[in-house]
From TrEMBL:
InterPro entries: AMP-bd_C, AMP-bd_C_sf, AMP-dep_synth/lig_dom, ANL_N_sf, ATP-dep_AMP-bd_enzyme. GO terms for molecular function: acid-thiol ligase activity. It comes from Gordonia spumicola. SUPFAM superfamilies: Acetyl-CoA synthetase-like (SSF56801). This is O-succinylbenzoic acid--CoA ligase.
Length: 328
């Protein structure tokens, strides 16, 4: 059954103002919504934020990289926001300058942003202001923001709590409280009680706070891969795979195994005019990952299956791998 998060008008307004203030949006700004409006990214972070700042919002009927570039060629956007995988697809496209040369600020979140991708954005378009945010539908999107001045040194952190937000780590899980928290799940009191504890929302995300109060996400509670008793965090492995020269995007997933319970697989999209040498890739990863976390099974995709928000769909990738494996 789909989850419906009940959000008050005040929460939606506060969430939109948070994004507008964090990105410094004004009436002179514009954006192109790349995802469905039933997602917080499009509804709150773009439409809502541009409404409260007096700017302009354009809509894309359905995301395809070429269609997005064509639309941005006609109507340039100064403010871009999307999950990292969509930003990456636009980065490696032949006409990436159409997207980024005229933009002023880029906000990303929803899934981990490898430091190598942020570094490439700034190297190719140094005028950009980059912000890394963390939030979820149940919190009207924004919970933390990493300011632009920390992107180069701390780019994989999602920052500090946004104004009015409280955050703590309970048994490795991120809990948040604040005025933008949902009141309940629609028609699901049992699920509501499992996620809300007093004023706190249990996010289901794993993370840690460093000595500077910055939040670092390490994965989802239900995404951890158990390889023979060793716990593997897919997001961490993905960030290391993304540093390989040939890789445009990577999604790590669990493969059932009768002996070890699970093994580590990875699905990748290659950069144009490159090839994948799996043995060489595994040797490079062995320098930065423990041996049990280095992916054993690799599969190259032209396009990864995606959720409605544009994230790579980890579960769909795992199903596809198992179905193809069963046919062999």
């Amino acid at each position: 059954m789909p989850k419906g998060a009940v959000l008050s008008h005040a929460a939606i307004l506060a969430g939109a103002r948070l994004i507008a203030d964090s990105a410094g949006l004004t009436a002179d700004d514009s954006t192109l919504v790349l995802v469905p409006l039933f997602h917080n990214t499009g509804f709150n972070d773009q439409l809502g934020a541009l409404l409260v700042s007096g700017g302009t919002t354009h809509l894309l009927r359905r995301y395809r990289t070429t269609d997005a570039i064509d639309e941005l060629r006609r109507r340039q956007a100064t403010f871009l926001t999307a999950v990292p995988s969509i930003l990456r697809l636009l980065m490696v496209a032949p006409d990436a300058d159409v997207v980024y040369a005229g933009a002023q600020s880029v906000l990303f979140g929803g899934s981990p942003m490898p430091a190598s991708w942020s570094d490439e954005l700034l190297a190719r378009w140094p005028h950009l202001t980059l912000l890394h945010g963390y939030g979820l539908t149940e919190f009207t999107s924004g919970a933390t923001i990493l300011p632009p001045e920390l992107i180069s040194q701390k780019g994989e952190s999602v920052g500090r709590p946004a104004p009015g937000v409280e955050l703590r780590i309970v048994d490795g899980e991120v809990w948040v409280a604040g005025p933008t928290r949902m009141s309940r799940y629609w028609g699901q009191p049992g699920l509501t009680s499992s996620k809300i504890s007093g004023r706190w929302l249990r996010t289901g995300d794993l993370g840690r706070l460093d000595e500077d109060g910055l939040l670092w996400l390490t994965g989802r509670v239900d995404d951890v891969i158990n390889r023979g008793g060793e716990k593997v965090l897919p997001a961490h492995v993905e960030s290391k795979v993304a540093e390989l020269p040939a890789i445009a995007e990577a999604t790590v997933f669990a493969i059932p195994d009768t002996m070890l319970q699970q093994r580590v697989g990875v699905a990748v999209i290659l950069r144009p005019d490159t090839a994948l040498d799996v043995d060489a890739a595994r040797r490079l990863l062995a320098d930065t990952l423990p041996d049990y976390a280095v992916p054993e099974h690799w599969r190259v995709y032209d396009e990864l299956p995606r959720t409605a928000s544009g994230k790579a769909d980890r579960r769909a990738v795992a199903r596809d791998y198992q179905e193809q494996d069963a046919r062999l």
